[in-house]
Amino acid sequence: MSSQDEQFQAAAPEPASSSADDGMTWWYRWLCRIAGVIGGVLLTLMCSPRRLNAFVLFLCEAPFCCQFIEFANAVSARADKLRAWQKAAFYCGMAVFPVMLSLTLTTLFGNAIAFATGVLYGLSALGKKGDAISYARIHQQQKQMDEEKLTGCLEGQAL
């Protein structure tokens, strides 16, 4: 087997990855990835001294942009195994750090999309909104408990 075949097999996605059961829909996952790529492009264009963040975004979200770097697929696979809240904390922290070092307009705008990528992952970590039936059931149970407390207080005053 040639080294090119080994690299192709390493680059092929696993059919049953841990990110498939995180509750994200396919379009939301692509939205997060596209936001990461756009954030990497903006960081490359706007923040010339801080291109490390752009490199990390490209490495984690779009490893095909770093196809000549041998460890790109391994880093991307490890980033895909992270939970959504871990990615959110990583991307938001990665975007806030350069802004704290040097608060300029280009640094702020360059890191805004990277921060937005972290926010998107954070929102996916919160999960889906519940359906109306479950909210109505919870509301009815709370109402029932309030009525029981009220009748208990009135009975205690009457005695």
From TrEMBL:
Origin species: Bambusicola thoracicus
Any one GO CC term of the record: endomembrane system
GO biological process, one term: vesicle-mediated transport
Residues spanning the membrane: 27-47, 88-121
Localization in the cell: Endomembrane system
PANTHER family linked: CALCIUM CHANNEL FLOWER HOMOLOG (PTHR13314:SF2)
Span list, region Disordered: 1-21
Topological type in the membrane: Multi-pass membrane protein
Protein family membership: Belongs to the calcium channel flower family.
Keyword vocabulary terms for this entry: Membrane, Transmembrane, Transmembrane helix
Pfam families named in the record: Cg6151-P
Name the UniProt record assigns to this protein: Calcium channel flower
InterPro entries: TVP18/Ca-channel_flower
